[in-house]
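Sample intake sheet
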Amino acid sequence: MQKGNISVQTENIFPIIKKFLYSDQEIFLRELVSNATDATSKLATLARKGEAKGDYTDKTIDILIDKEAGTLTIRDRGIGMTEEEVKKYLNQVALSSAQEFVDKYQDDASIIGHFGLGFYSAFMVADKVEVVTKSYQEGAAAVRWICEGDPSYEIGEAEREMQGTDVILHVSEDSKQYLEEDEIEGLLLKYCRFLPYPIRFGTKTETTYEEVEGTGEEGEEKPEPKKIETEVDNIINNTDPLWKKAPADLTDEDYKSFYRELYPMGEPPMFWIHLNIDYPFNLTGILYFPKVSGKLELQRNKIQLYSNQVYVTDNVSDIVPEFLTLLHGVIDSPDIPLNVSRSYLQADTNVKKITGYITKKVAEKLNSLFKEDREAYEAKWPDLGVFVKYGMVSEEKFYDRATKFALLENTEGKFFTLEEYRERIKENQTDKYDRLVAIYTADADRQHTLIESVRDRGYDVLKFEHAIDAPTIQTLEQKEEKLNFVRVDSATPDQLVQKDEEQEIFLSEEEQETVKQVFTAAVGNAGSVELKPLSAQDAPVQIVRNEFMRRMKEMQMMQGMDPSMFPDSYQVVVNANNPLVKERLLEVEDESARAENAAYLYQLAKLSQQMLSGAELKAFIDRSLKMM
């Protein structure tokens, strides 16, 4: 068995870094500013421990553009490097000074970098990279290092008064957009918005107004305030973001203000959850519940993921449960495993733990809101219900917690937990199989007539009018023992809750056959016809839809499949005991009038469910006018 060392050709490293290391070219700026932040953090740590002597109060990081020279400079006032350190860290790819520092000062340092590759992202946009640096160490000389994107480099003395480092990018011809102020400011706001040290990008004009006193003449209008414009530093970032603070020190207005900072055009959130954990992993953040107005088609990717205040991504589906991707806000954790370019998550057991923790915290917050102020919670339910139902459908652990605060709303606008609703319908809506039957409507306005007919029998009707409700019903039936859901139009009112009661039919067999034939002709191919002995007060004709087939069709549509694979299944039920059936059909001698009356009663049933076409509605009105 022979042993050896794998050979890496250094001339091939730079093309690989340039093309494959980072998913987006623009990430170079995040990496270089993060390095500047690390250098500043290192010096702050050493100063705090008494190992660096001097005045290091100015921790500003400058971003400088020189269009004429074609350069972009990232300047820090951090720890700097000696010539030996430049040779060690810049001339050896993937050797991280940050990691060495963390290993030595792990209890005191908050360092971003770990892989030792971020600096080389500069070559994605630059033909030449120049580094001018001076160590904080007493008597250290400034050093200049130059590389043109190949294994060769130059190193020598330089002029620099203060400690710290300038990374000067000589921007390549195909990356000239990075010499535009708007482009750089946009990237700084995206990636560096919450870094812990001030990031200065030139200056900006601040406008203030000063009251001017009038001359004292009676009746004279008050002079316009004096406009004062002042040039001030353009500090890009918020160095002390809200999620880093203790919840006890914050007010509701603080949270709302931070939400406006994150989403200037967004509606105010309903409420929020402040995440703060240090064991078994470190994680902080704030999750906001936005108003959704009953819609599921929300803009996702609104939660921003940070690692030590450095923006990573807004695609957090690997760390946040699917239903919570509808939330807005920020999550920050140094323990989240990132790929080498810090662009996305890697599979890791910590990710599962964090996902579980976030789910638990959300459930605890919702349960707390429900217990503390149920009335306010119910008022928010039209928006909250989307999150809760989505979570119950998609996350089993969340379902178990959510049964305590998930609500059911009936057509009277009253709310019930699952347990409360079971108790409400137990006496009247238990069928012959000892199952509780929850009756619901998918559209309270359109199905008003059916709802009233059902309520006349003493039944309660729930409202399930959202796209998420179909899978919610399926989930509830699977999870809850002996609980079935039926829609108001899935059967005649007497059959929604199946019992052993039987009604007597008052028509002879011959009369029944006549009625069925007339209605079969009126209905045509639209559905099957059945005669049933309902109450005389029930409608003469009712249209019901097969519950199973309707659900299958709804599920197919939710999955984007062709709904025509499951055609609508209608059944036209004629109430043999309604007086109109006998009066308008059996007691009419003229066959054409009998057929017209049957068509009218059928249209009346369709009208009650708003199923009439324009032509059918006109025919119905014409017929109604004749009968007046």
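Comment: Confidence is low (pLDDT under 50) at residues 94-98, 339-346. The chain has four domains: 11-201, 242-373, 407-496, 509-627.
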